[in-house]
Design goal:
By secondary structure, the chain is mostly beta strands. The protein contains 3 helices and 17 strands. β7 and β8 form a beta hairpin. The chain is globular and about 50 Å long.
């Protein structure tokens, strides 16, 4: 068993846009409440209806989305922040046109609670692994690249989560999580972490290194088995199998 505490909580209201750090959040059958509950959809004729990600348009990382750092269970849609700093309500007329102008393509909006690409899951990362990865690469690695929900400081060895199998559990605050169900387990990374968190530059060597040294894994995907609220600083106990 490993013991630690919650260092950071991240919520990503709109898939592939920048998100927000929060002090506390509710976790339940949706995963993290409000996380990736909205998406931008390709409006071009040949790809109409497909959810957009950074892989199709890195400029998505120049936009941010937030409910508010004090919001535990978001009661309303997020606010988006454009690169020049203007705030847009999700339901405000003209938002789709502003996004289209920024991305150079037609964009539609979609809201559906729990539409995470891996289902209602929670991504957990560990400070020991992030620190060790930076040491291997010889330069700092921003946590935001990996888009976690819960980031822990724990007495687990670096990269221990790469071997977490079905049945591994994490108790944090009043919440229990488990590696269970489809898509759960060590997180196989796509190319998104190779983009810096603002979408300006790519660092392809990061993904190459993860593939060569870590079987392209970073973090662990889990599902909520006991709902509740997690707060930064809460104690966490991990029981890997």
């Amino acid at each position: 068993m490993f013991e630690g505490s919650v260092a950071v909580l991240h919520r990503w209201p709109v898939k592939s846009l920048r998100g927000e750090e929060v002090r506390a959040a509710r976790f339940d059958e949706r995963g993290m409440a409000g996380d990736r509950a909205h998406a931008l959809v390709d409006g071009r004729e040949k790809r109409r209806g497909k959810v957009l990600t950074v892989r199709q348009n890195p400029a998505m990382l120049t936009w941010g989305a937030e409910y508010g750092a004090d919001v535990i269970d978001p009661p309303k849609p997020p606010v988006l922040r454009a690169p020049e700093g203007r705030s847009w309500s999700w339901e405000e007329p003209g938002l789709a046109e502003a996004l289209a102008a920024s991305f150079g393509m037609t964009v539609d909006l979609r809201a559906a609670d729990g539409q995470q690409d891996r289902g209602p899951t929670v991504l957990v990362t560990f400070e020991a692994s992030l620190t060790a990865l930076a040491a291997e690469l010889g330069r700092p690695v921003e946590l935001h690249r990996f888009r976690p929900n819960i980031h822990l400081i724990a007495d687990a060895p670096a990269f221990a989560e790469e071997d977490w199998a079905a049945g591994s559990t994490l108790d944090v605050g009043g919440v229990s999580l488990e590696v269970t169900g489809e898509h759960a387990g060590p997180c196989i990374r796509c190319a998104v972490p190779s983009w810096d968190p603002s979408g300006q530059r790519r660092w392809p060597e990061l993904q190459t290194h993860l593939i060569d040294r870590h079987a392209n894994k970073f973090g662990v995907i889990m599902r909520v088995t006991r709902a509740g609220v997690v707060t930064v600083g809460d104690t966490a106990w991990a029981r890997p199998t």
